[in-house]
């Protein structure tokens, strides 16, 4: 079986590793950008997602670039305590939660994909056909009047259009 994945983000790279672990090794990840850089912010990966990455044999690599999150605390701008709650293993999960930089996580996954599936498994500067095809929409802003008393707007229209193109029904705007 040959599998083509569009996008070498966290999802695409993890999917490639999962397919490889399931015995499907003819996998190619096509990434639109010509160069991948470790972009992003610090994010928190919750235990159910870390479980999947650990199952893929990435425990040591995760521990090397992430911080196991023990608690989540909200403070005011003056440092007054609002709320704390335990997280990850401190909250009783079998797997940790990690605070981790998105870009470093992506680079770690990229390295693992190239090691396991081969250096040519990720093709950069190669947008999938989906990005060159204009999606077909079943709903257009002018085809449906907004609820009475409410004005339509270009921003709302494009949100509804995107939802329709992704297969979801257009949402009724909740406020004008
Ligand atoms: C500010 C912020 C904070 C966040 N915090 C958290 C958090 O704490 N915890 C958490 O779990 N998540 C968090 N997220 C969400 C998380 O970062 C995303 O869900 C995740 O990165 C999505 O991964 P992805 O691979 O689906 O998409 P992306 O990382 O966006 O990757 C998609 C890739 O596909 C490529 N691409 C797109 N179209 C094509 C095409 N047609 N052909 C080829 N390549 C294509 C793009 O160039 C890109 O490299 C946060 C997001 C933001 C913005």
Task: Give an overview in words.
With 176 residues, this protein is of the alpha/beta class. The protein has 2 domains: 3-130, D-Amino Acid Oxidase, Chain A, domain 2, CATH 3.30.9.30; 136-176, no CATH class. The protein has helices at residues 10-21, 47-55, 59-65, 102-117, 154-165, and strands at residues 3-6, 27-30, 42-45, 67-68, 71-75, 81-86, 98-101, 122-123. Helix 1 (10-21) links the parallel strand 1 (3-6) and strand 2 (27-30). Helix 1 runs parallel beside helix 4 (102-117). The N and C termini lie far apart (49 Å). Mean pLDDT is 82; it is low at 133-176. Bound molecules: flavin-adenine dinucleotide. Flavin-adenine dinucleotide is lined by residues 6-12, 30-33, 41, 43-45, 102, 127-128, 130-131.
Spatially, the strands of the biggest sheet line up as 1-2-8
Q: What is the overall silhouette?
A: elongated
Task: Give the CA-CA distance, first to last residue.
Answer: 49 Å
The CATH architecture category of the largest domain equals: 2-Layer Sandwich
Looking at the structure, the CATH topology of the largest domain is D-Amino Acid Oxidase, Chain A, domain 2
């Amino acid at each position: 079986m040959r599998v083509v994945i569009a996008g070498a983000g966290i999802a695409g790279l993890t999917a490639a590793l999962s397919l490889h672990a399931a015995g499907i090794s003819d996998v190619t990840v096509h990434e639109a950008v010509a160069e991948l850089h470790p972009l992003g912010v610090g994010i928190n990966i919750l235990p159910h997602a870390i479980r999947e990455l650990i199952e893929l044999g990435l425990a040591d690599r995760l521990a090397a670039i992430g911080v196991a999150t023990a608690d989540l605390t909200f403070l005011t701008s003056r440092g007054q305590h609002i709320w704390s709650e335990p997280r990850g293993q401190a909250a009783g999960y079998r797997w940790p939660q990690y605070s981790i930089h998105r870009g470093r996580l992506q680079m770690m996954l990229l390295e693992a994909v190239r090691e396991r599936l081969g250096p040519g498994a990720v093709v950069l500067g190669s947008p999938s056909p989906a990005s060159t095809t204009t999606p077909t929409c079943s709903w257009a802003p002018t085809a449906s009047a907004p609820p009475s008393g409410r004005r339509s707007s270009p921003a709302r229209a494009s949100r509804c259009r995107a939802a329709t193109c992704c297969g979801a029904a257009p949402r009724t705007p909740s406020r004008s």
